[in-house]
Amino acid sequence: MKKLIVSIAIGGAVLSCNDDFLDQVPDDRLTFEETFSSRNTTEEYLAAIYRRLPNEYAQRYTTTQNSGPWTGASDEGEYVWSFPLSNYMNIGDWNPTTGNISTLWSNFYRGIRECSTFIENIENCRDCTEANIKQYTGEVHVLRGFFYYALLRSWGPVILLGDASTNADSDVSMFKRNTIDEVVNYIVSELDTGAEALEGINFKGGNAGRMSRPFAMAIKEKALLFAASPIFNGNTDYAELTDEEGNFLIPQSPDVNKWKTAADAAKAFIDEFVPGTFSLYKEYNDDGSVNGYLSCRNVMLRDWNPEMIYERPRGTFYLNYDCTPYHAGADSRVKGAGGLGLTQEFVDAFFTENGRPIDDPESGYQASGFTDFQTPYDDQSRTIFAAWANREPRFYVNVTFNNSLWLNRDHGDVITTTWYSGNSGKGSGGGNDYTPTGYIARKNIAPDGSTSRAIPMIRLAEIYLDYAEALNEYEPGNPDILKYVNLIRERAGIPLYGSSGLPQPAGQDAMREAIHRERRVELALESVRYFDLIRWKQAENALHGPVHSMDINATDEADFYRVITFETRVFTKKHYLFPVPQGEIDANPALQQNTGW
Q1: Is 240 exposed, middle or buried (0-12, 13-18, 19+ CB in 10 A)?
Q2: CA–CA separation, 404 vs 375, rounded Å?
Q3: Most buried residue, 142, 243, 525, 526, by CB count within 10 Å?
Q4: Are 523 and 461 in contact (CB under 8 A)?
Q5: Torsion angle in degrees (nearest 10) through CA of 131, 132, 133, 138
């Protein structure tokens, strides 16, 4: 009998919110026949596949829980510690032999193999009902589609294994890379198959964390959006990336109809699930108006709220430590590292309270000086740098800055100070734990310090903005574009485009810029920005060159407020796609390396 290649022990697997189920551990490694003979061990194997879903709140230790380097490798942040993969990427110090790259590649391909093994063997489950088999198979098709999507967005045209499973005897060395269109079509097929099988199955309550029809349709739309974007739609930088017959792996001529396909997929999701299943999460003031701050903060903190399409159950410990400031001298329950700093570029991206970017002469932005200001999370005014006052609510959701009140007030009020001698500054962090930029990421941190929450992976706001972007590229001027952008702004508590005093963007280019800006602040710190810059082919500008911060080395607090260059980053054309791991190239002579590596 053949033995399983991977263990099916699932101590912390993600499949259900039922802790008893999650804590099942089989006694030993089992044969395929034994594994798929009963429902219990079949579910254990399925749960092991779920473990390969990434926990993007663990990015400090890239690949620890299949996490990526997306926040620190974008223009949003910087880790103070040297070991995160993102820090190496930021200076161009990575290549096909970098271990984390191989680990990510292997994780998703192993997941794909395990999915195929499951599909091949599930019919042997003696005590599974037909309904069980249909549901489990649907889940696995969605998982397989997602794993390929994860590969697509980092490596581009990858290898399609078909139905080759873990116990298959196929010669892996003969596999070749498929074209982008083939990969995307396969992903769509897998997700459609899974979505059909999972129709009508509740994905909340006891099924929370399982694959679902809504998640399948959301990832389908995301894959089609990638296929429509400049990185994969008419990108002549990859003219040399061809198969043995000379076919381009990445299309060399843009096809605007791909934007229509992506827009249609997003609209199909909206038509089916809004408002009956999903809606933008909102909290309200006493007068009935939307509270933009609480709405945008708590949408990330309320498990399975009406906006969440999918969340990975349990485990925000890593992020909580990264984003809770050091707070020297404070109660240990409000102390962390504060080591995930935010760039000045990120801080400057947020609008002012009148909904305008800070470079707009009518924004009211003050670049210098100090003012007394009460933030949405405070009960009194405090003297802060004027640049941080009168900003939109999402600014205060995302940014911890010098002299701001910390979220967790259960152990006394703590004012976070991030300059050199402040309680969370470089001079107070024991040499290792401090913000490298003077700002600390704040989003996704619960006021009570809880770390047992689910981890959001995709929410309705992203679908709305995807739809607006794709529609603007295919049919500029369609009224739905402005409608869905304004729905996001309304929930954020800022003026709508086209309202009094704020004209709507005029023309396709202006609307494109408005959508890009909105995505940057609405989806901030959600592992979206890195891939947006990749999709749009804007990373060469945004991720290359000087990056700025406050002067964290200034021993006089007055000098802390100087904007300085803290790093000169490196991003060239080859960095748009990850390198294929060198071990894969060495083992497979038919496998072509990505351009430039």
Answers
A1: exposed
A2: 8
A3: 142
A4: yes
A5: 90
- Alpha-helical regions (H) of 379-502: 393-398, 460-474, 479-492
Contact 162, 178 (CB under 8 A): no
**Sign of CA pseudo-dihedral 98, 101, 105, 106:** positive
pLDDT in tens, 72-88: 999 999 999 999 999 99
DSSP 473: H
Burial (Cβ within 10 Å: 0-12, 13-18, ≥19) of residue 367: exposed
Neighbours of 553 (CB within 10 A): 14
Beta strand residue intervals within 365-519, DSSP E? 370-373, 382-385, 399-400, 404-405, 415-416, 440-441, 455-459
Contact of 79 with 159, CB cutoff 8 Å: no
- SS3 at position 388: helix
pTM: 0.94
3-state class (DSSP) for residue 371: strand
Contact status, residue 285 vs residue 291, Cβ threshold 8 Å: yes
CA–CA gap between residue 397 and residue 404 (Å, rounded)? 12
524: closest CA among 37, 22, 74? Answer: 74
- Alpha-carbon distance 24 to 291, whole Å? 42
Please give the structure tokens belonging to residue 269: 């999701």
Q: And the tokens for 147? A: 């794993």
Kind plus residue range of the DSSP H or E element containing 77? strand 77-79
Span 322-378, pLDDT tens digits: 999 999 999 999 999 999 999 999 999 999 999 999 999 999 999 999 999 999 999
Q: Check: CB of residue 41 under 8 Å from CB of residue 26.
A: yes
Instruction: Decide if 497 contacts 515 (C-beta within 8 A).
Output: no
pLDDT score for 29: 58
Read off the amino acid at residue 421.
S
Q: Over the Cα atoms of the chain, what is R_g?
A: 24
Within 13 Å and on the Cβ side, how many CA atoms surround 498? 12
- Compute the distance between CA of residue 151 and CA of residue 311 in angstroms, rounded to an integer: 20
